[in-house]
Input
Amino acid sequence: MNTVFQHYLRHPGAIVGLAILGCVLVAAAGAGWWYEESPWMMVADPMIMPFSNPEYPLGTDTLGRDLTAGLVHGARVSLLVGVASTAVALVIGVLVGAIAGYAGGAVDDALMGFTEFFQTIPQLVMAVMVVAILSPTLTTIIGAIALVSWPPVARLVRAEFLSLKEREFVQAAMVIGQRPLRIIFTQILPNAMSPIIVTASFMVATAILTEAALSFLGLGDRNMMSWGFMIGSARTMLRQAWWLSIGPGVAILLTVLAVNLIGEGLNDALNPHLRQRGE
Output
């Protein structure tokens, strides 16, 4: 573990990503403390320019809502959707991939055919359909993003299981009579965690972008302020009030960039071939 951590610290981009994500986490955690009132409330005159009023450092929107409050409260939504939808997608993908890779044969063919069906539909299109059919709440958004995110995980886990189940330690576990579920969760899955962790980090970034796209299209949770909604509501004022879109756009850019940099750092640290190359 110390070796992995040392290799991670050797990746400058990963450290930068960790610092940026740390700032976003602090903003999300302190949103309710810094801005106790709802970010939907009109608190000042509309269209205040950024840095012209110290009480509203990033200005206000067309309805007089504080943009800074919207950004820090929007960080909560983005991080929650990114982490929760990735967790659900990992559970589904790991279960499907593990069963397919370990069982093989007809079970493998059936599960992979089911997986390929989901991959034939563009992810954003399916997410829009699911959220549009159901009520656009935070729960349905998380479920929709998880529904379109699990197939790559399933294929990755299946490939790892097909490779690992032929190893000597797995064959030895079979010989001594261990049950398949125990072999899957105690022998194979722990050895397949490195690529799964790396993939999960990139999935969080994709989920944040998908949630922003849904909110931009008007399919976000109306009770929760989000960065995508802020950009969508300001798109008609781009020429007259550019700052309304710049703030949430930069927040999305930095957060997704930070998560991708962390994922690259984890890939370098957990991949033995890349570690040896760095040495």
Remarks:
- Residues 94 and 154 are 6 Å apart (CA to CA).
- The chain has one domain: 32-257.
- The radius of gyration is 22 Å.
- The first helix runs from residue 2 to 9.
